[in-house]
Amino acid sequence: MDANEEFHLLLNQTIKMNIEERIEKSESRIFKAVFPNTTNHYDTLFGGTAMQLMDEAAFITATRFSRQRMVTVSSDRIDFTKPIPAGTIVELVGKVSYLGTTSLKVKVDIYIEEMYTYSREKAVSCVFTFVAIGENKNPVKVLK
């Protein structure tokens, strides 16, 4: 391996490490109490409310990662695997799962915690895609 190849290998390792560090540092956690005004007639969290909370957590994560203007362009399939009852605490965890040139994806999971026990389980998952935009609202590179 010549000096130029070694330099590029080291540069790629440094860039990868910096991206991994940015992903770790941008992971976002939001806690909410599930009150009756956010539930449906089954006394579980409205699906639309869950989606709104997840999009907010994803937006915060994307913005913390890129430190740029980010807009949601799509969400993948949302999996509601457990109902979220009133009177519980939810934790939303957002983490960058893919990095493109002008876009990134953020996976958000919602965990249910019972208020008076240590029970905790995953209830909902979804992946959101964001695009970085400039002042003219056109796509720009996520990483400057």
Automatic annotation (TrEMBL):
Database matches in InterPro entries: Cytosol_ACT, HOTDOG_ACOT, HotDog_dom_sf, Thioestr_dom
Record has Ribonucleoprotein as a keyword: no
Pfam families: 4HBT
SUPFAM superfamilies referenced in this protein's UniProt entry, alphabetically: Thioesterase/thiol ester dehydrase-isomerase
Keyword Cell cycle: no
Protein name (Swiss-Prot/TrEMBL): Acyl-CoA hydrolase
Gene3D superfamilies named among the record's database cross-references: Hotdog Thioesterase
Provenance organism: Aequorivita viscosa
An example Gene Ontology CC term for this record: cytosol
Lineage, uppermost ranks: Bacteria, Pseudomonadati, Bacteroidota, Flavobacteriia, Flavobacteriales
Family: Belongs to the acyl coenzyme A hydrolase family.
GO biological process assignments: acyl-CoA metabolic process; fatty acid catabolic process
Coiled coil stretches, renumbered: none
Keywords attached to this entry: Hydrolase
UniProt domain HotDog ACOT-type: residue ranges: 24-136
One annotated GO molecular function: long-chain fatty acyl-CoA hydrolase activity
Taxonomic superkingdom: Bacteria
